[in-house]
Design goal:
Length: about 260
């Protein structure tokens, strides 16, 4: 029979092994959840600075109010109160290009922009690279991932905190540097100034921590799970789902399709 290899975990009658460690003896009560999440993907333990920055990313992405993902979770729980897993899944399925997916999109964009180029050595060189990057996006008719926010129009409060943590822990890498340079130069191309949003900064941080871009959305979803569990608990404690449904239903105007022309 063909074997199936995994480096993550296994169990037998008496023990559970995770990442080569005895779960009960070596990890429980000794390793935090954020550290374990980092370790499971990177297959190495983070340094103290890396862990601090990584957990700041998780906190930054965990909760942002009654966003579409939270509303989807609450409405699903309203229709199926016995299905917490369905409510959680409903919220996570909406992690796309406008919400949650920006972390991956920005990280992927920055990584592609840095691929095959010499790493700049000065702020002027970073600005030159950023300017060329933004111009290419504009000429292709595409948005720059991580620029702008529908609520924080004058500045996302998460972004400077992430930069401060990266700098203080010696982890300000090329993806964060390029993202910051994009923030400086994009008005020259776009003709307006947009904030660097927190989700984009999170993508830059995760890339600088060495995570593959294909894993970045997973971290955004992992973080948002904490917020969605909170929404599930609050919906059980202080429900608003039926009110949302009734408000939408009451504001709906039926517009029958036009009669077909012959």
């Amino acid at each position: 029979m063909t074997g199936y290899a995994t480096s993550l975990g296994a169990s037998d009658e008496h023990t559970i092994t995770v990442l080569g460690q005895n779960l009960a003896d070596d990890l429980m009560g000794k390793v935090g959840f954020g550290e374990l999440a980092f370790w499971l993907v990177a297959l190495r333990r983070p340094t103290s600075g890396e862990l601090r920055l990584f957990e700041a990313v998780l906190v930054a992405l965990a909760e942002h109010g009654l966003t579409p993902s939270a509303i989807a979770t609450r409405l699903t729980l309203t229709g199926a109160p016995e299905s917490v897993q369905g409510a959680m899944a409903a919220g996570l399925l909406g992690g796309g290009s406008r919400f949650l997916g920006v972390t991956e999109d920005a990280g992927r964009f920055l990584a592609a922009s840095l691929s095959g180029v010499a790493i700049p050595r000065s702020e002027a060189e970073w600005d030159e690279l950023a300017l060329a990057t933004v111009r290419r996006q504009r000429e292709a008719g595409r948005f720059v991932p991580g620029l702008g926010h529908n609520v924080h129009r004058s500045g996302d409060p998460r972004t400077p905190v992430l930069y401060s943590l990266a700098e203080s822990n010696g982890l300000l890498g090329p993806h964060l540097r390029l993202f910051r340079a994009i923030g400086r130069v994009h008005p020259q191309v776009l003709g307006r100034t947009l904030p660097l949003n927190g989700a984009g900064a999170c993508g830059a941080v995760l890339c600088d921590l060495g995570f593959p871009v294909d894993t970045l959305r997973g971290f955004a979803l992992l973080a948002r799970c904490a917020g969605l569990v909170g929404h599930v608990a609050e919906e059980m404690r202080r429900p608003i789902g039926f009110q949302v449904y009734e408000n939408v239903d009451g504001a709906t105007e039926y517009d029958p399709p036009a009669a077909p022309t012959r």
